[in-house]
Amino acid sequence: MSNLIRLIGRRLIALPFMVVGVTLLVFLVMSLSPADPAVLALGESASPEALAQYRTAHHLDDPLFQRFWDYLVNLCHGDLGQSFKGNDITHLVKSAFPITLQLTFIGMFLAVIIALVLGIIAALYRDRWPDQVIRVISIASLATPSFWLALLMIQWWSDVPGGTGTFQAVNTGWVSFGDEGYLRQITLPAIAVALPNSGSLTRVVRTAMVEELDKDYVRTAIGAGIPKNIVVARNVLRNALITPLTVLGLRIGYAMGGAVVIEMIFNIKGMGQLIFQGITLNDVNIVQGVSITVAAAFIIINIIVDMLYVLVNPRIRSV
């Protein structure tokens, strides 16, 4: 138990340092951009006096370290700064980030269901035709870009008679979770997130299941007369699914990045639309705020998954 507490504590201590490191990296990339924020905010027709006043008001002439420190202090207070148009970036992120989280987790929930079903079937029918078919499916899903799949679904569903009445191909607004029409608007984007991520998870589940099925305790239990289905359900599944849990954390992070792109395609008002707006308007403050938020979420999710792995792994928990 002491080892368990020590491992969890180590990850919690590392969390703020990792977030600060990511923040520094994003801040440096944005600060070293050749574009002048004052010109981007006021336009090329602005007078030199107005540009100088803007730089002074936003501390753009301060040393880089001082600007980063001020930004970090404001970030600790939940302030991501303002866009060039004067909008509060924190408010924009608070409105958009929950939508991206919903799309990510619903998509990954579907991916996990697909991976569990296909991975277990492939392991139980190892080297037989179901396994071969599932291998082809998983490799095809791995090779399929999520943005291409999203575009394909929009094109295909728009051509199906009555298709847009069943699922909404392009969103004109966002319906809150639980309200009427929510499933209709989230289904296609969630599938676009799920399918590319299900391929790698399927292969991991299959590999873990095969390794567990080859262990001595499984052969001993089956030899003692216990039905194979019971051994698989009670022991093999529980032990085999520990390993895919670590991969799941990485896939959730990748899925969040993919969801940002899918949101732009389906016109969902999430972080994707927000970062697209920042890029279109050359607003580095928006891009910086969104990038830091997504990166911090990626780190936090992976640390949570690592902690869950420690909790469910009996070899670590029993120490």
Q: If you had to describe this structure to a student in words, what would you say it looks like?
A:
By secondary structure, the protein is mainly alpha-helical. The protein is 78% helix and 0% strand. It is built from 15 helices and no strands. The longest helix has 36 residues, at 89-124. It is elongated, with a radius of gyration of 24 Å. Mean pLDDT is 81; it is low at 160-167. InterPro entries: BPD_transp_1_N, MetI-like, MetI-like_sf. One of its GO terms (cellular component) is plasma membrane.
Low-pLDDT residue intervals, each spanning 5 or more residues: 160-167
Strand content: under 5%
Main pleated sheet: none
The count of strands amounts to 0
How are helices and strands ordered from N to C? HHHHHHHHHHHHHHH
Count of discrete structural domains: 2
Just name the CATH architecture of the largest domain: Orthogonal Bundle
- Through-space gap between termini: 6 Å
Give the overall shape, derived from the CA principal axes.
Answer: elongated
Average pLDDT taken over every residue: 81
The CATH superfamily of the largest domain is identified as MetI-like
Helical proportion?
over 70%
Query: How many H/I helical runs?
Result: 15
Going by helix content, strand content and strand pairing, the class is mainly alpha
Query: What is the CATH topology of the largest domain?
Result: MetI-like fold
- The CATH C-level name of the largest domain is Mainly Alpha
The Rg value, from CA coordinates, equals 24 Å
InterPro entries: BPD_transp_1_N, MetI-like, MetI-like_sf
Domain ABC transmembrane type-1: 97-309
Transmembrane segments: 12-32, 103-124, 136-157, 241-266, 286-312
GO cellular component, one term: plasma membrane
